[in-house]
Amino acid sequence: MGEAAERLRHAAVTTAVIGVAAMVEAVADPRCGAVVTFDGVVRDHDEGRGVTALTYTAHPSAAEVLAQVATGIAERFPEVRLAVAHRHGPLAIGDSALVAAVAAAHRKAAFAACDALVDEVKAQVPIWKHQRFTDGTDEWVGALG
Q: Confidence band (pLDDT; 50, 70, 90) for 144?
């Protein structure tokens, strides 16, 4: 499938709308019989409280860190192609915040790599979430840790 840098088809931190279809298109390859996707969508609740909206704030290094994380996953899983994007800025309920796609010849590798990719993005990429609740309160949630 090639070197890790070649198999990492897309990694971006952006204010633009992101979606599964674009990530799937980025990893498409006739050698791949499995494509696993993750679509992290803004939901209307968190821990029993209604959420009205949220804003993601990205550190200036977030895009670089995301690319490093994705490259690391590509190195750990040499049989996959992958693409990932994380939005920042204000998002509405139903918007995609984190989208990933992983393609491989077989499903198990694709599932394992996609799971690892999402976990590592959430653990390492410096992006923070500011949630606003229906009761008028708000909170900051660190994507790190």
A: very low
